[in-house]
Amino acid sequence: MPLALLALAIGAFGIGTTEFVIMGLLPEVASDFGVSIPTAGFLVTGYALGVVFGAPLMTVLGTKVSRKRMLMLLMGLFIVGNLLSAAAPTFSVMLVGRVVASLAHGAFFGIGAVVAADLVAPDRKAGAIAMMFTGLTVANVVGVPLGTLIGQSAGWRLTFAGVAALGVLGLAGIAWLVPDASKPEGVRLRHELAAFKNVQVLLAMAMTVLGFGGVFAAITYITPMMTHAAGYADGSVTWLLVLFGLGMVGGNLVGGRFADRALMPMLYVSLGALAVVLALFTLTAHNKIAAAVTIALIGALGFATVPPLQKRVLDQAHGAPTLASAVNIGAFNLGNALSAWLGGVVIAAGLGYTAPNWVGAVLAATALLLAVLSAALERRDDAARGTGAAHGADATDPAAVTVAQPERAQSAQSRAVTHH
Fold this sequence. Notes:
By secondary structure, this protein is mainly alpha-helical. 83% of the residues lie in helices and 0% in strands. It has 2 domains: 1-181, Up-down Bundle (Growth Hormone, Chain: A), CATH 1.20.1250.20; 191-384, Up-down Bundle (Growth Hormone, Chain: A), CATH 1.20.1250.20. The protein has helices spanning 4-33, 37-40, 42-61, 67-87, 91-118, 125-154, 156-177, 189-194, 199-219, 222-230, 237-259, 263-284, 288-304, 306-316, 322-348, 355-390, 398-419.
């Protein structure tokens, strides 16, 4: 794999750390600013919404520059946002800093996925995308626990300053290692927007929302679920999330490897198994060992869908994939927000802390149905194109007639020469 993927992975590591580390530091941030924890939760919500809206916005703004330059600008924006959060004098300023940092998130992963795929041979594209996303998954194993520990012991401002330093490292790596390819010729904003007329692109994004949403329906409420249903102590949730992160790392690499060989079968297996495991989590959540194993499996199966779904979007939006790729990153966050809300609804309805697992199972199963539908539509379209090709020489086709006329003339000339 090219070294440029390492630079992209470092940037992804920093972004993944800043996205999730705030969840472990909400009490400290709320206490420092004198706000309630639910109010401090807007730092999570604001970031997620910034990703959803920032992904297409920043990608559109970047259509006039090369992808490398845009990646560098996004890393610069990420650094500014985290420095603003680290130095924020008020809660409102910190919220602004979180939103500024989030604007870089979706476009970085969207453009980065296109760059990563272009760096390797066609049969290794999903693996290259997975290599970049490894930075995001490793952030959940190393960056988030370490950032939380630093924030709780030395102050949360130091955590965000450290994340900004990671951004500087990622920026330097991109400047040094990523090839300085020019902006693709002939690709305009209208071409990028045209990708959204492709039903296969929309189906892939819907699979992203529902499939990964299934994961977050369960994981969002992992703390009350594990403390109330499984009987874990509050302090044990940190290492349970590390297990989840390890599962993400493994699933991401496996998903990237097999998506290059058989993309749709990989989606069938991962989404189907994810739906089953989430449904079983309603039972295994009541046993400490079974719950820990299930959490790791959810991380692995959930992230095994990421490389194939991202590659599916790139394949279907071929020729102008950048905006579609970035919007698909926003779709992951949209799925997170939707599933977290639905999970809260079933808990508020009195169905218990394990009820979000059923929500996740239904979402993942629906994504599987969409994958089957997508493949069926693709087979139908391929068959239609094959039938059209078989009748391509029909005499009623003006193009066929045009081609046939010189052939008949040449045949007549040949007969005349033979007769002579």
